[in-house]
């Protein structure tokens, strides 16, 4: 069975990919979010030519070869685009075999604990605590992440003392018996990150994400070595060579690849296995309600070294207009703090035709 046609349906934020085989079977995937229109252009120009005509069911090596054929273009756009192809092929394989993707990679359908993940820094401690506590009480979440510092902030806070205020305030409001996580988004030098980390230790926070500029692996390792709590990261890292370095030097306690930044499920499985070999858990990054969270659910249900929970964005359609219209049936309902991987074949979703109609269409097919 060969790949015959690759279609994209995109706007600036989000782009879906449909792969069709020479026997007419179809699978749906997604390139990574934001500048998805540019990413789809890369998919047609630099990914599709290497994939058309290749085996649609045995594609691990095709995904690797794309990087080699395009070796002058390493980096995020090629991987984001490749992820669209890879995730569509996993969906196709699942549909042909009548199995959810998780079952194709050694997992099984079922529930998964989720953590409520805030994406905001423009929010005061009181308001953040209010909405997290509401989610605890209404949806049963038992784990929460909020933001400290400022993205790539060079030790300057979002506003003076926000970090020192929001950590104890939100932690106290949430109370005991829940897991508390914070994200620094590359905000701190090692010295400042260790200082913030001590405060986190004193306030019952168990996970300190991306404390230092993410490309400074040695800085992050300094923080990891100094603190007793988990230091985590890796969402941006999209090259396997980078992951070999991160895992080899143990710069983090928990690896957080993003399936769609990294180039798809196949490459994320490689990273998760590398982490498993040295005993590190994998908690994928999935910061929006496009396909990435669903892919992460299927992955987590299959990994022997799965982290404790799924990242579940709590930002509603008001900030991500597309979030609730993408799928005919929303796969992200939370009950008792858990989401559910169903036994529907592939990713188990149908892309909303109304959404597709409003996108820009492009196709590349075999001559
Ligand atoms: Mg993060």
Automatic annotation (TrEMBL):
<dbReference type="InterPro" id="IPR013342">
    <property type="entry name" value="Mandelate_racemase_C"/>
</dbReference>
<dbReference type="InterPro" id="IPR029017">
    <property type="entry name" value="Enolase-like_N"/>
</dbReference>
<protein>
    <submittedName>
        <fullName>Mandelate racemase</fullName>
    </submittedName>
</protein>
<keyword id="KW-0479">Metal-binding</keyword>
<dbReference type="GO" id="GO:0016836">
    <property type="term" value="F:hydro-lyase activity"/>
</dbReference>
<dbReference type="InterPro" id="IPR013341">
    <property type="entry name" value="Mandelate_racemase_N_dom"/>
</dbReference>
<dbReference type="Pfam" id="PF02746">
    <property type="entry name" value="MR_MLE_N"/>
</dbReference>
<dbReference type="GO" id="GO:0000287">
    <property type="term" value="F:magnesium ion binding"/>
</dbReference>
<feature type="domain" description="Mandelate racemase/muconate lactonizing enzyme C-terminal">
    <location>
        <begin position="126"/>
        <end position="230"/>
    </location>
</feature>
<dbReference type="InterPro" id="IPR046945">
    <property type="entry name" value="RHMD-like"/>
</dbReference>
<dbReference type="InterPro" id="IPR036849">
    <property type="entry name" value="Enolase-like_C_sf"/>
</dbReference>
<dbReference type="Pfam" id="PF13378">
    <property type="entry name" value="MR_MLE_C"/>
</dbReference>
<dbReference type="InterPro" id="IPR018110">
    <property type="entry name" value="Mandel_Rmase/mucon_lact_enz_CS"/>
</dbReference>
<keyword id="KW-0460">Magnesium</keyword>
<dbReference type="GO" id="GO:0009063">
    <property type="term" value="P:amino acid catabolic process"/>
</dbReference>
<dbReference type="GO" id="GO:0016052">
    <property type="term" value="P:carbohydrate catabolic process"/>
</dbReference>
<dbReference type="InterPro" id="IPR029065">
    <property type="entry name" value="Enolase_C-like"/>
</dbReference>
